[in-house]
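Just curious. Protein, please.
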Amino acid sequence: MSRIATKICGLSTPEALDAALKAGASHVGFVFFGKSPRHIDFDRAAGLTARVPPHVVSVGVMVDPDDDTITQAKQAGVTAIQLHGHESPERTAAIRARFGLPLWKAISVKTRADLDQGRAYTGAADFLLYDAKTPDGASLPGGMGLRFDWTLLVGFNSPLPWGLSGGLDPDNVAEAVTVTRTPLVDVSSGVESSPGIKDVDKIAAFCKAVSRS
C-alpha cells in the first residue's frame, strides 16, 4: 500500500473499478454531473459501490448539487462527497451538516492567490482538492487534463488536509509528488484512452508510479 493516497475518479464500469481496486487505490470517484463524459446514473453507481471494500472510500463528485442529488448519491453508496462547482462555504457547511459524510471541496488554482480561497472553507469542509482552473467558458469544471504550476504549493500551509488534481498521469505523477509533497493524488483523464473511457493498463501504471514515489 502506497503512503500516498490515490483516487481514481470518473469510474463507470466494473472493469475499470476492479482495475483501480486491484492496483491499490485508496479512493474511487463517481461523477454525477450530466455534462461530463464520466457521468453515471445512480443505479449504475449503486452497482459499482457494492463492489468497493470498506477500506476504500467511494467519493461522489457533484457540481453545485441540490439536496435531492446528494440524497440519491448517498443512497447509491457513496461514503464521501466532493463538491466541484461554485459552492459557497455556507452551502458546503450545510451539506456537510445535513448528510453527515466527509466533505471535499475542490479549489480551482491558476495563481498563488487561488490557493488561499480554501481558507474560507475551514470548518465547512473536511478536505481540499487543489485542481487546475479550467478556461473561462469551459463546460466542465475538471477532468480536462489541465495542470497548474505545482511549485505554487511549495511551502504552502494548507488550512485543511488536501490533495492534488489536474493533469496528472502515469508519467508525471511521481514528479508531482516530489514537488508538492501531496498526501493524495487524484486522476481522471490521465488514465483514459478517450474522454470517459478508462484504460485499465494506465490505471495500473498510475498507481504503480505513485507507490514508487
Notes: The longest helix spans residues 200-212.
